[in-house]
């Protein structure tokens, strides 16, 4: 018996004719068919990258609205808008237009808050996505380039956020720019020239808002779109990673096709994210520039903080002890600024080089499409935790004044503790996390061999008491035991010179694999089933 399928679109309809016309000129059907069959695995952690994309869409939509009304000029004007407390106050055109958007443009305040909240969510989701990639080893071959592109996206996103945060020319953003100006001027020889070039003269100058506006609405968004497109293309080309599980190998991807399953779920998730952003923007106030007033170099509001993702730079400046200046004739070398530059640079550069460093230390040049469980790579997980602690200590220092006032502590005590925790605390976090991963590995090995504790205890004929264990499911066995065994790289003798080489690499490799617990073999699992009479 044959079944005739009737197309939902008539062959002579306008839609069908338009589709044929487009296909004859572009041959898109092949690309759409190929992409539609692409398989994407289903796991909640993969949605972090989607959150970044959808929040970026909210940024573009709200930002486009705001460009129609914002005036990026530092020309002095007198405010005559609807906000009575500032009426008649002198300010820049940028600040006046920001107040007009907030109080005179219908929906303007909502769009401002949507734009700001979406930017915060965008950076947060990028950082969480990067953490997931790092801890699961998704940066390994063949995805090293995509890791680098993701890091560039993170840096551009922070620059985009800072440039937008500085546009209103209010007291808070002006103080932030003043800090940046001081950091730039501390650069030996060329710092003052760079500052004058950026600001159009001595700070605050007359040009910085217009230049930041060009960066914010044209150059940085264009770079974001380009690198985001590259990121997605490489993800499709390299195929998606997946967690260990039954039927999942390095050669396949288990999940749902893009069309219609994944696309439908993605569209629904995008609507949820956009709805969440609009909801939080409607209920929670952010950046009320009317409370701060226009920028004036003389006052500094108490308790002012930068947006959280920029806080680590401000915090690092606060952690440097006083007196770190070296007079050199008529010039003063300010280590109080250059050392934070060094620390922040090492923090970021370390993220860029780590995939290549790990591949060199482990000697692993294979392609990887199955993700690691963080506990199964203790060194990497511990290093990532130490990295996060280092960042968190810098970030917390940006709020050292608020910590001191809210918890009734001396400011010096807060700073001294954070100075200690920045270095020594990161070392402590590394070793505690490493031992915790080893302990979890040992627990997993015991569970794989003996199963879950059931809480049921029986007495054997010879008087021994024994707890009954429930065997693991097939999926649980896969998730616990699917990880590869590695051997530390050994030194080798160069046949030409007869000298032993690779000693440093060998020591690092042994440190990387130190105390790592090997996965159980099928023979060990089978033998354990009959050893104590576990429940089958």
Order of helices and strands: HHEHEEHHHHHHEHHHEEHHHHEEHEEHH
- How are the strands of the largest sheet arranged? 1-4
Radius of gyration: 29 Å
Instruction: Tell me the major beta sheet.
Output: 2 strands, antiparallel
Strand element count: 10
Percent helix: 55-70%
How would you state the average pLDDT, rounded? Answer: 86
Give the termini separation: 48 Å
Low-confidence stretches: 1-5
Form type: globular
The computed structural class is: mainly alpha
What fraction strand?
A: 5-15%
Number of helices: 19
Word description of this protein:
- 60% of the residues lie in helices and 7% in strands.
- With 536 residues, it is mostly helical.
- The protein has a two-stranded antiparallel sheet. A two-stranded antiparallel ribbon has the order 2-3. It has a two-stranded antiparallel sheet with strand order 5-6.
- Strand 5 (325-328) and strand 6 form a beta hairpin.
- Helix 5 runs antiparallel to helix 6 (144-165), helix 6 (144-165) packs antiparallel against helix 13 (335-362) and helix 15 crosses helix 16 (411-450).
């Amino acid at each position: 018996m044959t079944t005739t399928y009737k197309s939902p679109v008539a062959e002579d309809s306008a839609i069908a004719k338009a589709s044929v016309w487009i296909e004859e000129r572009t041959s898109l059907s092949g690309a759409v068919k190929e992409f539609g069959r692409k398989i994407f695995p289903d796991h909640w952690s993969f949605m972090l990258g989607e959150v970044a994309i959808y929040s970026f869409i909210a940024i573009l939509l709200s930002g486009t609205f705001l460009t129609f009304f914002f005036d990026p000029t530092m020309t002095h004007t007198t405010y005559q808008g609807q906000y009575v407390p500032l009426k008649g106050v002198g300010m820049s055109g940028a600040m006046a237009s920001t107040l007009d958007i907030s109080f005179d443009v219908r929906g303007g305040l909502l769009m401002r808050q949507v734009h700001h909240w979406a930017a915060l969510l965008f950076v947060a989701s990028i950082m969480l996505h990067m953490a997931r990639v790092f801890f699961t080893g998704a940066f390994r071959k063949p995805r090293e380039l995509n890791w680098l592109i993701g890091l560039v996206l993170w840096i551009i996103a922070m620059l985009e956020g800072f440039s937008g945060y500085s546009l209103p020319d209010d007291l808070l953003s002006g103080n932030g720019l003043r800090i940046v100006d001081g950091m730039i001027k501390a650069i030996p020889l060329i710092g003052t020239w760079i500052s004058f070039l950026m600001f159009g003269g001595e700070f605050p100058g007359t040009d910085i808002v217009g230049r930041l506006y060009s960066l914010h609405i044209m150059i940085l968004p264009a770079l974001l779109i380009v690198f985001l497109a590259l990121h997605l293309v490489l993800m499709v080309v390299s195929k998606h990673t997946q967690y260990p599980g039954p039927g999942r190998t390095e050669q396949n991807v288990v999940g749902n096709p893009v069309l219609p399953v994944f696309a439908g779920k993605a569209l629904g998730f995008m609507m949820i994210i956009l709805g969440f952003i609009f909801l939080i923007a409607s209920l929670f106030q952010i950046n009320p520039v009317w409370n701060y007033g226009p920028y004036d170099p003389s006052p500094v509001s108490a308790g002012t903080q930068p947006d959280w993702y920029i806080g680590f730079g401000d915090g690092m400046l606060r952690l440097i002890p006083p007196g770190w200046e070296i007079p050199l004739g008529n010039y003063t070398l300010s280590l109080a600024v250059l050392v934070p530059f060094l620390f922040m640079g090492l923090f970021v550069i370390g993220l860029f080089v780590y995939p290549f460093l790990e591949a060199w230390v482990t000697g692993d040049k294979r392609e990887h499409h199955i993700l690691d469980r963080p506990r199964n790579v203790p060194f990497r997980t511990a290093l990532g935790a130490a990295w996060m602690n280092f960042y968190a200590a810098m970030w917390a220092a940006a709020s050292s004044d608020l910590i001191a006032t809210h918890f009734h502590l001396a400011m010096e005590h807060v700073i001294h503790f954070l100075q200690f925790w920045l270095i020594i605390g990161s070392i402590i976090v590394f070793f505690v996390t490493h031992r915790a991963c080893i302990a979890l590995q040992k627990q997993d090995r015991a569970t794989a061999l003996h199963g879950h504790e059931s809480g049921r205890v029986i007495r054997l004929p010879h008087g021994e008491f024994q707890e009954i264990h429930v065997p693991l499911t097939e999926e649980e066995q896969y998730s616990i035991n699917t990880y590869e065994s590695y051997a530390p790289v050994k030194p080798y003798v160069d046949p030409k010179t007869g000298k032993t080489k690779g000693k440093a690499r060998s020591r690092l490799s042994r440190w990387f694999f130190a105390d790592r617990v090997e996965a159980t073999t099928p023979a060990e699992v089978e033998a354990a089933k009959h050893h104590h009479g576990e429940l089958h």
